[in-house]
Amino acid sequence: MVEGTVSVIGDGQAPGLVDGPGWSLPGLDVAAGRYPLSVERHVMAMADHLVPGVTTVTPHGRYYAVHGLIAAQAEAEDLTIPEAQSLLRRAEVALAAVSFAHHPQALEWLPRAHGTDALARRLHTGTLTMSEAEAPGKDGYVGSRWGFWGPYNGSEIALGILAPGHMPAPGPRLEAAAVRAGLDGLLELARAETLSVDSLKSFGDQLCVCAGGERADGEWLAKVMCEPADPAETGSRSATRRQTIQLLARVVTEHPEQIRRFTRDIGPVLAFGDFLTSDSVTSGIDTAAVWRGVVLRNYSVGAWRRLWSWLVAQVDGLLPIEEVADRFAVELPDTTVDAFLSALPATQSTTGAPLPAEYDLRNVIDSPLPLTELRVLAAGARRVDELSGRVRDAFLGRRGVELGPEWTQRRLDEARPTKLRDFARQITHDLVARSQRIARAKARRRPDGTLWLPTRLHERGGLLYRTSQEGRGDVGLRLDQLGTVLATCGVLRYDGGSWSVTGRGRALLG
């Protein structure tokens, strides 16, 4: 018998009913989790391989320098952990305040400095009291005692800027003199009692998040980003990052009027056409083929995410799963799967280059979302037999996984004689079952006895209900963040609505 107290419900109810176990709190926490279909893993892992040192939450090159500066200062002054935490937060507040003073309106090509939104009320009053602004919590600029070091820490360690540890410490590639010179004046602002926004305007050209490219810290960071830690290690992560940067720089150079946003505009260049194989530079970059496969796979990943988001949105109230399946089916033409596949646009040119089928399908006007995304999935499935070599390997990833291109191809081929609408109904059941399996696999028992179940969609006896909407964005490939980091260390420049490679960038990349 399990020990614990129980209580018998009284007040006129049937005797003997147990009011829950006494050793745990009642309740099921159904706070939504991320990646409900778990289709993103391969693309995310490949992005980490191709762009080490940059993530989807590290858009600012200057934070690498700021955290390096704090590491150097903490070492020089032998700061305690609380002292280092306070100095780091104050430096980040000062950086945000200077950046706001320099650019009160957000820049087109660069996100605002971290914490600016939380500091907005104070910034608009014209004065910051540092002890209040830097305090962690709901009333300060950030929740963490370490400010925004957490999101950047892994990247800074990967780049060799910081050493692993419980507080920022100089790594092998940190040049303390460069970050001190580039960020000259930041520590003085960080240690001030108050900051006047108007007086900070004079610091804009040297301490704004946009200004690193013209400063010593930017020149140092550009070398860290573009030069392998050991030139002899051709297969190292830093060598892979250099190849990715060389690839992006070449695309920017050869398509100057086309590139405004990296993921949106460079992605199709990497995925489609013969530029990667015919250009004298990109044809010699090993990672170009890998990038092609990853971008093509991301179209399929995005299709599953969009389709799932649409299905979850159909669940209004308590709804039988068959009703959701019927709502999917009615959005599709009354035809067979074979006819549906035959009507897809070509996915390969006569020379073997991938054609932009997925891109074009997403731009078809008035096409229902479920039909569009099913077409995108079918186009990706067709590429299983069209791609070859490193492109195919990067496209497929782990072989035969559920919802992968090979799985989708097999399911479509098996269903060719059947009605497309019946196929959609079966896919709906498959996706709901998969989402429930994944949610249960991720479920965790918390110390207080409650259960955390990460799902927005719940199934009970064939009935569905949802607690919130699902997101439908594509998996981030880190290209936008890589572009802004390179711009804020002077490798790239955004001017007049387009990107270009700077003289520094050309010198570093060859």
Q: What's the number of structural domains?
A: 3
Mean pLDDT metric: 91
Tally of alpha and pi helices: 24
The separation of the N and C termini measures 74 Å
Q: Estimate percent helicity.
A: 40-55%
Shape: globular
Number of strands: 10
Report the biggest beta sheet as strand number plus sense, adding barrel if it closes. Answer: 3 strands, mixed
Q: β content, as a range?
A: 5-15%
Q: Looking across the biggest beta sheet, what order are the strands in?
A: 1-6-5
**Helix/strand structural class:** mainly alpha
Radius of gyration: 27 Å
Sequence stretches where pLDDT stays below 50 over 5 or more residues: 1-30
How would you sum up this structure, described in words?
The protein has helices at 41-50, 61-77, 81-102, 116-125, 130-133, 149-158, 176-182, 186-190, 197-200, 204-207, 216-226, 237-254, 262-271, 275-278, 287-313, 321-330, 337-342, 357-362, 369-382, 389-396, 405-414, 420-442, 479-487, 503-509, and strands spanning 28-29, 127-129, 194-196, 319-320, 444-445, 451-452, 457-460, 463-466, 492-495, 498-501. Helix 2 (61-77) packs antiparallel against helix 3 (81-102), helix 11 (216-226) runs parallel beside helix 24 (503-509) and helix 15 packs antiparallel against helix 19. The protein folds into three domains: 61-208, no CATH class; 237-283 and 476-486 and 492-509; 287-466, no CATH class. A hairpin with a 5-residue loop joins strand 5 (444-445) and strand 6 (451-452). The strands form four sheets. The chain has a three-stranded mixed β-sheet with strand order 1-6-5, with no helix packed on it. A three-stranded antiparallel β-sheet has the order 4-8-7. Strands 2-3 form a two-stranded antiparallel ribbon. Residues 1-30 have low confidence and may be disordered. The chain is globular. By secondary structure, the protein is mainly alpha-helical. The protein is built from 24 helices and ten strands.
